[in-house]
Each structure stands twice: as C-alpha cells, then as structure tokens.
Amino acid sequence: MREITDHTWVKIQDRDYIGRIAVDQKLEEVALLTAAISKAEGLEVANRIMDRGRIGFALARCKQWHLEDDRVTDDDLHIYYRYATDSMRNAEAILAKELPHIGL
User: Fold this and answer.
1) Is residue 1 assigned to a domain?
2) Is 15 inside a domain boundary?
3) Residues sharing a CB contact under 8 Å with residue 79, sequence separation 6 or more, in sequence order
4) Which domain, by its residues, includes 28?
5) Is residue 67 part of a domain?
6) How far apart are CA 43 and CA 72, in angstroms?
7) pLDDT tens track of the chain, all 104 residues?
C-alpha cells in the first residue's frame, strides 16, 4: 500500500501554494481510499477504518485555513492537522495489518 501520510502530507501545514495543493491532493486520496475500502469490504469497514469521515473533515478544515477563512485559526489548523495525521496513520496501520489482501 502506498502511504498517504507521505512527504507531501507534511506540506499541509505550509501556508503557501504548495500547502494548498497538498491538502487538495490528500483530500482526494482520502476520498478515493474510503471508496476503495467500501467497495472491497463494505461501508461499515470503511467507516471504521477511516474514522467515519473525520479524517476528511479535518483535512477540509485545513483547507479552510489555506483559503484564509477567519473561522479557522492557526491553532485550529494544528489541531485538525494532528488529528488527521494520527487518524490516517492509524488507518494505514489497520490496512497493512488486517486488510493487505485488498491491495490498496
């Protein structure tokens, strides 16, 4: 499985065009991964592994920060980023350990 929390993931924290590209890319990858798990193992398994959509939600909040939405502060970014990172790493570990047969 190709890791989603790769060298591009850490760029989400950067307030520049690279950070914005990174968050868009990772939002898409998380959505595609969720759909692939759901197709292979069912929606309930996808929800369990991908934390019921909260990873994507946290990344969407990071994107709001990049769009300079005043409702998302620098502190909020770090909270959402850390949550998304920890949850995505947990999801990657579950996939590698419990579902290597689906080849994601």
Assistant:
1) no
2) yes
3) none
4) 9-102
5) yes
6) 30
7) 679 999 999 999 998 999 999 999 999 999 999 999 999 999 999 999 999 999 999 999 999 999 999 999 999 999 999 999 999 999 999 999 999 888 76
87: tokens are 């949850």
Handedness of CA 61, 91, 20, 82 (dihedral sign): positive
Cα gap 65→74, rounded to integer Å: 8
Q: Is residue 3 part of a domain?
A: no
Torsion-angle region of residue 83: left (phi > 0), alpha (psi -120 to 50) or beta? alpha
Look-up of token digits 């990049």:
66
Does the model's pTM come out above 0.90? yes
Q: At what angle do helices 74-98 and 54-66 cross, to 10 degrees?
A: 150
Q: How many CB atoms lie within 10 A of CB 15?
A: 12
Q: What amino acid occupies position 100? A: P
Q: How many domains does the chain have?
A: 1
